[in-house]
Amino acid sequence: MTPVKTWSTPVASCEEKRLIPCALCGGLSFKPSLSCEGFSYVRCSSCGLVQMNPQPLEEEIKRRYGASPPARRADGALPPQASTLRVGAGEDYLAYELVNEETFLNLQLLALKDAGFNELETKFDKLRVLDIGCAIGSLLARLRERGWETTGVEISGPQAEYCRQKQNLDVRSFPLEENRFPEASFDMVLASHLIEHLNDPVGLAREVGRILTVGGRFFVTTPNIAGFQARLFKGNWRSAIFDHLYLFSVETLSRLLEESGFIIEKISTWGGLAAGTAPVPVKRLFDRAAKRFGFGDVMVLRARKRE
Q: Which secondary structure element, helix H or strand E, spans residue 95, and what is its range?
């Protein structure tokens, strides 16, 4: 049985795109990787990073999440078939997060536990945490209850507003770099299911390094293109969706973080088979094996800022 794909904004063929060098190694040679319905991925011939290329412009990506209105012509009208599907995308994403709030929060907490977050809480004096792509703020609210000084970044307008109005959280609506946080502002930075959505994942990692304290930690959770499910389902893999510009493996994400000034301290993967794709006993067996042997569907990497 083919797994149900993760929620994504609708595929749009009208977005402006351009061919770019590989974000990881700068290479310009690519070969086909995954073919999906309405879009596809290529693999860098030099470093193996799987990516959409040609890639939608950053302005197009922001519009997907309701961060800005669709581009208009000089006369004020929307161009034919322009990003009209994106107008309600932010509200749709908010509804999706609200319906799955408890499930997503529990998964985030388990990922952090696997990566040793809980043990590190006792090693910092100020407990300042930044959650990039914090969605509706459930994780930040939980960490605030545990004594953390919390800040969030969320470019999806409806979700950011929910955080501020319903959760009473300090959440910024600009992309990370545009917030201009002072150096060494945070002891921990979290990015759960975010880095794969960004045009410039290297820029994100370098900015995180700038705003972390010396010895601060960066926790990155993202789908694992080298996992069993990705290899089995290929273009039907549940994380091969229109909103994911990059699909990392442990190897490619580790290289990105190390070249951005981090030391990898811990790696964990989980998810052997998606629910509904196999009988429950078989799924449990695969799930245990995926965590033990590192071929899980999702991975979390804990990285320490190099001194």
A: helix 89-99
